[in-house]
Amino acid sequence: MSIRIGLLGFGTVASGIPYLLRENGSKITDAAGNTLEIAKILVKDNEEKNRLLAAGNDFNFVTNVDDILSDDSIAIVVELMGRIEPAKTFITKALEAGKNVVSANKDLIATHGAALIALAKEKEVAFYYEAAVAGGIPILRTLANSLAADKVTRILGVLNGTSNFMMTKMVDEGWTYEAALAEAQALGYAESDPTNDVEGIDAAYKAVILSQFGFGMTIDFDQVSHQGISTITQDDVAVAQQLGYVIKLLGSVEETPSGIFAEVSPTFLPKSHPLASVNDVMNAVFVESIGIGESMYYGPGAGQKPTATSVAADIIRIARRITEGNLGKSFNEFTRETVIANPNDVQSNYYFAVDTPDKKGQLLRLAELFNAEDISFEQVLQQKANGERARVVIITHSLNKTQLANIKQKLQDEPEFELLNTFKVLGE
Ligand code: NDP
Ligand code: HSE
User: Fold this and answer.
1) 191 annotated ligand binder
2) Residue ranges of the ACT domain (predicted)?
3) Which residue ranges make up each domain of the chain?
4) Spacing, Cα 189 to ligand 2 middle (Å)
5) pLDDT at 385
6) Helix H segments across 245-330?
7) CA 276/CA 425 separation, integer angstroms
């Protein structure tokens, strides 16, 4: 008897699964310990069903989710619709019905994952979601299994394929923002609402999930500050290049002496840093730990086949467990009490771009403001701006989040200074 699967949604990722089952059938059957069969696929309506059938997709398409949820022969439900609802309701019902669930839905897992994980545990079924973080990179299972003996201290990641693709096209090839976004959408990288990609929200969801697997703590999505690529200007890119950096949208999760901290922000990376050469749709997760030291996991962060491969790996793992009769083990068993870091313990160097009248004494005044907050400069650059204005670029030595908030406020209070942008700067 095959292990029967119900797919919820048949978009970019889901439609890659039949390809893998077809092209790699015997290996998958050996690994799963059984043959896998796509029994039913949920689509939105009859129009979509007829369109897919006419296009040669020979599957049992259904338009009512109950056709899958009430089908006792279906053991694994694979949710690939995205967004919170109705995905949350459908997954909840599937788990309640004793079905195992695979999902790639980071929005849902980062915001409502705890309840779904608890329900899966109560029902002794599996709930796996490897594809939710960094698409084709098998990072969650690596953290849960291969780093089980290690203590992770910091995770840095290029975690959004769309924004990395867009930045690469805009910076290296001179594309416009609009053209780069349209191409990312055409290639199936972007979310249905690409705001999540370009505003750092998607990467923040992934940081939440990484906090669980890397640190055993569940940081709330609301506690992950996020800033996206839409805030980066051509001037920022040019000055970064001039000073030997590249700008990447980086997610970071770190454990400080007082607790855990996570954020997503455009970050100046020295050109020599391994993450600096992660381009196009590629993602990378750079892990610092006391055992391995530094390790980096690199691969496509989005796209049909890479993501479907991660989803299929979860399906195979569940099928194997069904065959062997040992379901119910949590995807991630590392859990500790969540303690959020004191802002004074969260340290980084920063880039400041400040617009000011181009007149005597302004640089000195700026230095006094920073000095009053005990912030020292590593590099300073003054550039001629439009008219009688100057643009001062500062790379600071390390400062903490309290100092950062204070100096931003001070600059805001000074009518002659306009803070154009401030980003984190990673050390060598
Ligand atoms: P798509 O938008 O391409 O596919 C989702 C499909 O589900 C669409 O065809 C959509 O129809 C359909 N759908 C939505 N709601 C329903 C519903 N109520 N009933 C039936 N069908 C429904 O998304 P992706 O395949 O790109 O992404 C799927 C999931 O995987 C998301 O959670 C995404 O975040 C995640 N993911 C995606 C990656 C990628 O590279 N694309 C990488 C990693 C994760 P319609 O279009 O009509 O709304
Ligand atoms: N939209 C996401 C990205 C898909 O571009 O990274 C993968 O999670």
Assistant:
1) yes
2) 351-425
3) 3-136+303-324, 139-299, 343-425
4) 6
5) 86
6) 304-324
7) 12
Query: And the tokens for 396?
Result: 């600071």
How far is Cα 278 from Cα 283, in angstroms, rounded to an integer? 6
CB distance 347 to 399 below 8 Å: yes
Q: Where does 44-158 have alpha helices with state H?
A: 46-54, 66-69, 87-96, 106-123, 139-141
Structural fold of domain 3-136+303-324: Rossmann fold (3.40.50)
**pLDDT on residue 35:** 96
- Alpha carbon distance 291, 356 (integer Å): 48
What average pLDDT is seen over the chain? 97
Q: What is the pLDDT of residue 386?
A: 84
Q: Is 374 exposed, middle or buried (0-12, 13-18, 19+ CB in 10 A)?
A: exposed
**CA 202/CA 195 separation, integer angstroms:** 9
Per-residue pLDDT, 63: 98
Task: Please report the pLDDT score of residue 328 as a whole number.
Answer: 81
Model confidence pLDDT, tens digit, residues 108-134: 999 999 999 999 999 999 999 999 999
pLDDT digits (tens, 9 = 90+) for 206-233: 999 999 999 999 999 999 999 999 999 9
- Angle among Cα 163, 166, 167 to the nearest 5 degrees reads 85
Task: State which fold the 139-299 domain adopts.
Answer: Dihydrodipicolinate Reductase; domain 2 (3.30.360)
Active-site option among 88, 99, 123, 206: 206
Q: DSSP character for 340?
A: B
Q: Mutual orientation of helices 401-413 and 362-372 as an angle, nearest 10°?
A: 140
Is 106 within any annotated ligand binding site? yes
For the CA of 305, the nearest ligand: 1
Measured CA to CA, the distance from residue 301 to residue 132 in angstroms comes to 10
Could you tell me if 316 and 29 are in contact, meaning their C-beta atoms sit under 8 angstroms apart?
Answer: no
Strand 127-128 relative to strand 100-103: parallel, antiparallel, unpaired? parallel
Closest ligand 2 atom to 189 CA: 5
d(CA 249, CA 236): 13
Concerning whether 206 is annotated as a catalytic residue, the answer is yes
Residues 6+ apart with CB under 8 A from 59: 10, 18, 38, 40, 41, 52
Residues 6+ apart with CB under 8 A from 293: none
**Segments of the chain scoring below 50 in pLDDT:** none
Domains 3-136+303-324 and 343-425 share a fold: no
Return the best residue to mutate from 160, 163, 183, 206 for the ligand 2 pocket (most ligand atoms within 8 A of CB). 160
**CATH class belonging to 343-425:** alpha beta
